[in-house]
Design a protein that fits this description.
Elements (H helix, E strand, L loop, with lengths): L4 E8 L5 E11 L6 E11 L10 E6 L9 E3 L3
Parallel strand pairs: 3-5
Antiparallel strand pairs: 1-2, 1-4, 2-3, 4-5
Amino acid sequence: MPKRVLTGVVVSDKSEKTVIVRVERRVSHPIYKKTIRLSKKFAAHDEQKKFKIGDKVSIIESKPISKTKRWAVVYE
C-alpha cells in the first residue's frame, strides 16, 4: 500500500526538528451543496530545519517518530 502524500502550509516552526503543517481540503456540504474548506494540522518531522512559516510543503506518511509525529517533510 503506497504512503499518502499531502500538501499544505507551514503554520509553526517553533519546535526542534518539527513543523506544524495545515492541510486544507474542499468538500461539498451534504445538504446545502455549498463547497466548504476544511483544514487539519499535522506535526511533521523536519530534520534539516529548512522550512519556515508560510512555506508550502509536501508531507509523507512515516513510522511513528514521537507521540504526535507520524509524518515527514518531503525534500526535493
